[in-house]
Model the fold of this input.
Amino acid sequence: MLEELKRKVFKANIDLVKHNLVLFTWGNVSAIDRKHNLMVIKPSGVSYDTMTPDDMVVVDLDGRVIEGNLRPSSDTPTHLVLYKAFPSIGGVVHTHSTYATAWAQAGKDLPNIGTTHADYFHDAVPCTEDMARKEVEGDYELETGNVIVKRFKDINPVHTPGVLVKNHGPFTWGKDADEAVYHAVVLEEVAKMAAISFTINPNLTMSEHLIEKHFNRKHGPNAYYGQK
Done:
């Protein structure tokens, strides 16, 4: 079942290692088949060194395992909340990459202070609020998804395809698993750039017209970056 999607999700998970975004088993990638309302996700706690495409787990949108011999990622409920809330996305990534996680642990939005950021994230990458005790002690992973969705109340998740979960780490998404990984790579790099930039100049600024130019030349109605 969904053999091609399993291969794509497996490759995307391996790409997290390739791009130095995960250590040990600290990350996961999923993708959704919206025609059949099924999600494919990495199994929980399985080493990237031994994992195979056949290890990917298929679940329905209620989190029930439809196919697979292993338990799905513990973050499965978070992924499912995001797919339900953001119908245009097809892939989700979670990592504990160093710089993005540092911003999350600091509880700070990652501001748009450079053209690299503006090329991919229109706004600051937002950081969620503290989770209440009942959220943490209840259905924690599901509530993690809910606090992300709440933070995006006034933010376009297509234009800003990532979030920092406070004291936890980043989630990114995209039209498919590959694009979600791409955004995870970009997020880590701009988080690193921002950390260094604020060290050099704590009072740095970024103009709105430069943000709009760089974002819209790639994503606007008259985009001209790249080939047709």
